[in-house]
Amino acid sequence: MEAQQEQHNKSRVVKVDSLQSWDFYFNQATNQGCPIVVHFTASWCMPSVAMNPFFEELASTFPDVLFLTVDVDDVKEVATRMEVKAMPTFLLMKEGTVADKLVGANPVEMKKRVDEFVQSIRVNAA
């Protein structure tokens, strides 16, 4: 019973801590046809930090989507590669490309966009 509870409390958001881990998760998800939602954040950016619990909640709601978080100060190369210039920035990706981008801390808009993104993928896969 404790193991189940522990599993239930485990985060579904994967923290990217290097360019190598980004490449690993990005390539694995892309090869498996798994959509990705990325939160580009910074520890000093209060709107980004405020979005963390909401991002966790979204990850729990959509178990068939890979949720990644990237601290732009820790992994500058990824932020540069993805042309992230402001925090928070959220990228919705499928098949290795950006399908949608949202800049700013807007939980209502974020949920709406992720809902639409996932629905469009499920329709295309059916």
Question: What would you note in describing this structure?
Answer:
With 126 residues, this protein is an alpha/beta fold. The chain contains five helices and five strands. Strand 2, helix 3 and strand 3 (66-71) form a beta-alpha-beta unit. It starts with a helix and ends with a helix.
Outline:
The protein is 49% helix and 23% strand. By secondary structure, it is an alpha/beta fold. This is Thioredoxin domain-containing protein.
Task: List its traits.
126 residues, alpha/beta, disordered N terminus, Thioredoxin_domain, Thioredoxin_H-type-like, Thioredoxin domain-containing protein, Thioredoxin-like_sf
The overall pLDDT, averaged over residues, is 90
The number of strands is 5
Biggest beta sheet attributes: 5 strands, mixed
Ranges with pLDDT <50 over ≥5 residues?
Answer: 1-8
Query: How much helicity do the residues have?
Result: 40-55%
Largest sheet: spatial strand order = 1-3-2-4-5
Rg value: 14 Å
**Which descriptor suits the 3D outline?**
globular
**Structural category:** alpha/beta
Written as H for each helix and E for each strand, in order along the chain, the element string is HEHEHEHEEH
Q: Total number of helical segments? A: 5
Question: What is the terminal-to-terminal distance?
Answer: 36 Å
Protein name: Thioredoxin domain-containing protein
Domain Thioredoxin: 1-119
InterPro entries: Thioredoxin-like_sf, Thioredoxin_domain, Thioredoxin_H-type-like
Organism: Hibiscus sabdariffa (roselle)
